[in-house]
């Protein structure tokens, strides 16, 4: 066993002892030193060093079996997921100030320079209004264009719109999951997840395979706010999960920003209450940027709507190309399509029926079932299929595009016969989406635009 591999195994083992969000990890590391030192300590040593631990907690540390850790590490290595341990120099310093820092993070994508970059979380309701959609996109675009890293959770609504806008601006974005890094939740964003993995960063504190349970999301929310210097809430009622993130930001000593909303509007109560209680009012991106202009003068530049022109305006075509769905009156709809999908249950406030819906994800349905449930094909991307555009593609992208039938969607495993690896296929499909030539449908299916 290599020293590096052995070190990671003990970090995985320790992270499994108490699960995500535990406040015990910092004290254990302070008193013992390393996960390996904790692993080799017997029950008497643990009781002597940390007498405040309960019998159940000591029993968890007494499980000296590395089988699960080996299994998790092997799965990550085979599937291209990386691990960021608490002792890694790249570990965000902002997390070290938390009383419950993540011991271990699973991720895919490129880690930004968190130590020297301004990070702003943008969160809000899944049932956003047209106004909320537009203002979330505009502010996220302008912040990302100014050099700010946009952090969110890939949820339906404000979260995914903000992440998409950051990518459209050529900026960086981070999506933090409340489930395993290998699980696409919501399933409607399976295609968007692939794009984030290739062009941005996705992270999770939960081990691969972890389902999106309701109890996971408040734990996840502390990581969204904790990674950032400030959190912006766009829309949300008094029961919105975005307010949990806002409360976490305040308890962590972070700045809190909010977009004012009309009194009486269903999405107004939560954000207006935050403003009444002292949140900074935000009308444009510069209202946030000016708070950090001195501290991050080398990495953030001031911007304005006037200087950006219409580029920062809401772009439904871009959202559609990236596979982003948003909730509107009457259910979920692809942003630029006129048809709607059946609204899935939210995992943030689970009931037994919601759990059934999560277990029966689109990936478990047949192509025929998904095709029947998908909205009638429109042409939101207005893709140019001219010979000139096709000729500009690489050989791999052109072969993948030509393999997708005109008549019906296709799953990625049906493209394996082309002789490319899964990673190569995902890269080609993402490029074709960006070019507006194909669309992603629920269940990981692809069709021509």
Topology diagram in text:
Blueprint: H1 3-18, H2 24-32, H3 35-40, H4 43-49, H5 55-61, H6 67-79, E1 82-85, H7 93-96, E2 104-109, E3 119-123, H8 130-145, E4 149-152, H9 158-168, E5 173-177, H10 190-199, E6 201-204, H11 216-226, E7 230-233, H12 241-251, E8 255-258, H13 269-276, E9 280-281, H14 286-289, H15 305-308, H16 316-321, E10 325-328, E11 331-334, E12 340-341, H17 352-359, H18 367-373, H19 387-391, H20 395-403, E13 410-411, H21 422-434, E14 438-441, E15 445-448
Parallel strand pairs: 3-4, 3-7, 4-5, 5-6, 7-8, 8-9
Antiparallel strand pairs: 1-2, 2-6, 10-11, 11-12, 13-15, 14-15
Helix pairs in contact: 1-6, 8-9, 11-12, 20-21
Describe this structure in words.
41% of the residues lie in helices and 13% in strands. The chain is globular, with a radius of gyration of 22 Å. The protein is built from 21 helices and 15 strands. The relative contact order is 0.10. The chain is α/β, with parallel strands linked by helices. The strands form three sheets. It has a nine-stranded mixed beta sheet with strand order 1-2-6-5-4-3-7-8-9, with helices on both faces. It has a three-stranded antiparallel beta sheet with strand order 10-11-12. The chain has a three-stranded antiparallel beta sheet with strand order 13-15-14, sandwiched between helices. The model is unreliable at 328-384 (pLDDT under 50).
